[in-house]
Amino acid sequence: MAEYQLEDGAYEALLEAHDSSNRLMEREIYSMRLISEAQGYETDLLPAEMQSIQLTEEDITSGREDKIRKAQELVFDEGYQEAKSLIENHITQFLDSIIATTETNHVESAEALEQTLALQRIWISILFVMNIITFGIITMLVVRPLKIYIKCVKDNLMFETVGSYEFKYLALTYNNIYELNAANQAMLKKKAEYDTLTGVMNRGAFIQFARLQEQLPSALLLIDIDRFKEINDCYGHDTGDTALKKVARLLTTSFRASDTSARIGGDEFVVLMADICEDQKDVIQKKVEQMNEFLRHPSDGLPPMSLSVGVAFSNNGYNEELYKKADKALYFVKEHGRDGCCFFDEKMMDVRDSAI
């Protein structure tokens, strides 16, 4: 940071954003501790960060509903949202200062280049050949890097490490900032679009993704882990979480790279297969059988599991009707013994509806 002449208050804004973020995190942990108390979870099973939180006497003696209500207020009230907005404003102020400083460096470098070129024009009349060589050197070390950097800025790309030492240093510095910003953006995007436990796409992101896909022949698989509640009750939530991760990994590795898997509920998953027709039912049936065979004979210490899968096909990509058909097929499987796969048939139209 010392290499940059930041605007007044920029670094302080970053520190304030960091401190505010820590305070929000403490607030969120307190909220989670309230929820755990309200739900009656054993303190020993909680993460160390939550165990270290001491509730106020008032919160300890309050009722279950009061605890839940206060926990919700802590992370959904106006004060929480204002604090998040303030953090974003501080970060924006800090980044704007860095960008302004970088732009100033660009301008100063361009001015220095113009002065150098002016001096070279004087020497052209005296030492023409030498000046051609000098001009070539300048072109390679200064003009070319600048053009590359300008194009990189326009295309939102990292700088190539070319040119003189100063330009290489500038490129490295810019790239560090670029990577930091890209990492932050990627982290925010991942938190918004991916399930934190399993690492697959979450419900909201899947709906948005599915609706934007091309209108190709597709298959939608709705997947439930059979009797998952019994796994949680008998083996504990940690085992249940591990089981969810295992199923998510299995779905990712069992289907094509072009297929999309997501977790849309507690033990509910979905797979959208693009460019597949109804005459390929056997392929899907075999995949489901292989997955259930793998889950029924675990070697990792987890209890045996199985999946119920409802499948529906569409000639025009994803739509709400496709989901309803897959849901009816899933319901049929669960009503007829679970542990298997069923393809939608028009005879199932009187089965109960649900919506994603």
CATH class of the largest domain: Alpha Beta
Extended strand count: 5
- Ends: how far apart? 48 Å
How many H/I helices? 12
- What name does CATH use for the topology of the largest domain? Alpha-Beta Plaits
Strand content: 5-15%
Largest sheet, described in full?
5 strands, mixed
Across the major sheet, the strand order is 2-3-1-4-5
String of helices and strands: HHHHHHHHEHHEEHEHE
User: How much is the average pLDDT?
Assistant: 84
The Cα radius of gyration reads 29 Å
CATH architecture of the largest domain: 2-Layer Sandwich
General shape = flat
Structural class: alpha+beta
Helix content: 55-70%
Uncertain regions: pLDDT < 50 for 5+ in a row? none
Question: How many discrete domains?
Answer: 3
CATH fourth-tier homologous superfamily of the largest domain: Reverse transcriptase/Diguanylate cyclase domain
Question: In summary, what is this structure?
Answer:
It holds the Pfam family GGDEF. It comes from Wansuia hejianensis. The protein is 63% helix and 9% strand.
Describe this structure in words.
- With 356 residues, this protein is of the alpha+beta class.
- It folds into three domains: 83 residues, no CATH class; 66 residues, no CATH class; 148 residues, Alpha-Beta Plaits, CATH 3.30.70.
- The protein is 63% helix and 9% strand.
- It is built from twelve helices and five strands.
- A five-stranded mixed sheet has the order 2-3-1-4-5, sandwiched between helices.
- A hairpin with a 4-residue loop joins strand 2 and strand 3.
- The two termini are 48 Å apart.
- One of its GO terms (molecular function) is diguanylate cyclase activity.
- Keywords: Membrane, Transmembrane, Transmembrane helix.
- InterPro entries: Diguanylate_Cyclase, GGDEF_dom, Nucleotide_cyclase, Rev_trsase/Diguanyl_cyclase.
